[in-house]
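User: Hey, my collaborator sent me this sequence without any context and asked if I could get a structure. I don't really work with proteins. Can you help?
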Amino acid sequence: MERWRNYLLEVELREKEPAAPQPQSAGQKAASMLGRVRGMITKGFDKMDTTLQKDYCINKFPELLHAQGDLETWGDLLATLKCGIGYKDKKAFLDILTNQVPGLNAVKSIFANANSQADFILKMYQVDDDARPSGNISKLDMDDYVSKMLDKGIEREFIEHLIKAIGARALDDEIPDDWNITKELEEYLRQKNSGRTIEVPQ
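Assistant: No problem. I've predicted the 3D structure and written it out in structure-token form, which is a compact way to encode the shape of the chain:
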């Protein structure tokens, strides 16, 4: 009987002990790393010191994009704009980035010649549709017909709206397959003009 009581006591103690953490799978480790890398943007890229910016733009972020093969989330797009425009050694970032993700080679010269996020987006959507780059960065290339007819004042307002809209989205949310800058403009004009917007030829 005494042995039985001891056995029950041992069982009760084991049940109260916290379970040992399970080893993470490769996928779980990758997901954890992605969260940490994208989370750095939320802390404020402009507030990072030069050492942290270098570690992020030259090491961590290109490594992440290499593993993914493309920009997948709003955080990836925002980080590309931050490092491609705001990082002091953006040439080094662009060299590494285009080596890691060859699909971004087509926009290297656009980044190199842009002096702000707004300037990059403006230059990006003026690319001819026939020269549109591959991957999600191509979603910033506006339909040629629409970009030519866009009023300059509305254009500036829209680009400011777009930069704020991208920054306001959840960084870990994937960029939808059907999202692009032309559709964003259509929705912006619809909200601004009581439902009226542009008609894009099919």
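In plain terms: The chain has a mean pLDDT of 78. You can pass these tokens on to your collaborator as they are.
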